[in-house]
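User: Here's a structure from my thesis project, written as structure tokens. My advisor, Dr. K., wants to see whether a designed sequence matches the one we expressed. Can you design one independently, without my sequence as a hint?
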């Protein structure tokens, strides 16, 4: 079963953060931003535990998670649901799981462990404008709106 197809990977690469939702023993939700993560294959996502003690604790109690990422300019993304497990730095498999994450951050962050997510479902996330105003809303119009909202100016290729 191939859950993560190329468009999902493309959107994921354009996302600066992803958001991991977990729940604690009392059923209280926790949503935490994650800056260092990678799609390992068609069904596995690996997230670095840099500053995630609550996420790690919640996963130990309840492995069900939701991971979301959105391209803030296009205003589209994906919600991945599944189960997660923590692989600690002392575990034999840590080096294999952590290698691509450590390559991203070098010595900038300490990676305490990694959270390996087995993806069970994928759903699209789209801004309401796409649904309520489908004839007026395009990716280009959303990018233009996002650039205005964030006060971002396009840089011409070849110029700095």
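Assistant: Designed independently from the structure alone:
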């Amino acid at each position: 079963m191939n859950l993560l197809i190329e468009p999902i990977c493309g959107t994921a690469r354009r996302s600066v953060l992803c958001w991991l939702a977990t729940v604690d023993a009392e059923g209280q939700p926790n949503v935490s931003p994650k800056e260092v993560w990678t799609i390992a294959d068609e069904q596995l996502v690996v997230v670095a535990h840099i500053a995630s003690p609550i996420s790690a604790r919640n996963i130990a109690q309840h492995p069900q998670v939701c991971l979301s990422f959105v391209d803030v300019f296009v205003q589209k993304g994906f919600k991945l649901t599944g189960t997660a497990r923590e692989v600690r730095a002392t575990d034999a498999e840590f080096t294999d799981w952590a290698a691509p994450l450590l390559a991203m951050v070098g010595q900038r962050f300490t990676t305490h462990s990694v959270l390996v997510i087995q993806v069970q479902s994928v759903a699209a996330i789209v801004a309401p404008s796409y649904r309520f105003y489908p004839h007026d809303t395009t990716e280009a119009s959303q990018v233009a709106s996002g650039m205005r909202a964030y006060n971002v100016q396009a840089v011409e290729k070849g110029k700095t």
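When you compare it with your expressed construct, this may help: The chain has two domains: 6-126, 128-160.
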